[in-house]
Amino acid sequence: MGHVKNSLLTLGIVAITALTSYSAKASLLIEPHLGFNIHGNADYGTETTKYNGVQYGARLGFQQLGLMAGLDFTHSAFTYKTTSPGVAEVSQDQKRDQIGIFAGYNFPILLRAWVGYYFSDKTTASDNTFSKGSGTELGLGFTGLPFLSINLQYRMSTYDESQAGALNPEFDTKEIVLGISAPFTLL
After folding, report:
1. Peptide bond into 169 cis (omega under 30)
2. Domains held by the chain: number
3. 115-121: which pairs have CB atoms within 8 A and are 24 or more residues apart?
4. Nearest-angstrom CA–CA distance, 49 and 74
5. Measured distance CA(140)–CA(104) in Å, rounded
6. In which domain, by residue range, is 135 found?
7. Under a CB-based contact definition with an 8 Å cutoff, are residues 111 and 142 in contact?
8. Residue 140, pLDDT score
9. pLDDT per residue over 113-164, tens digit each?
10. Which of 42, 69, 104, 165 matches a 20 to 30 Å C-alpha distance to 141?
């Protein structure tokens, strides 16, 4: 699995390099982002988990004629609050690192939209246990402010591996993120 992720990362870097060097009109996109997960939930068998927290990261890629694509890194910190039938709520601190690719379009009407695929999605708990998987993202941004984009994102992740091996059943999360980013383009 690690070989596939490394191959996808290499392919993404080669594609970005090729596309940005193809035309002198393509611009380098650098976009730091900060957000707050306003609603997150996960289901694992009979357990229900809710969480929220801060996330930050950056996108690096290219932009040409409204089209944009590149790599994305996001780091999150939150507390899972898990409830099970007949058991008191259990809280556990988590950190998550996601690495992926994105593609989108900047509309001329102060909006931008993108999709993302996180080929590396790893959560680490406060007791150093971890889960690995992959995820997707749908994003919409309002660009009416100078140098800022106000973003609403919907993320879905599936975790199918832990330090103990394969997870059965898989652990799925869904979350809504509200945030801001500063998309800079350099020629």
Report:
1. yes
2. 1
3. 115/139, 116/72, 118/72, 118/74, 118/157, 119/4, 119/5, 119/8, 119/9, 120/5, 121/96, 121/97, 121/157, 121/159
4. 21
5. 10
6. 2-186
7. yes
8. 98
9. 999 999 999 999 888 888 899 999 999 999 988 889 999 999 999 998 887 6
10. 42
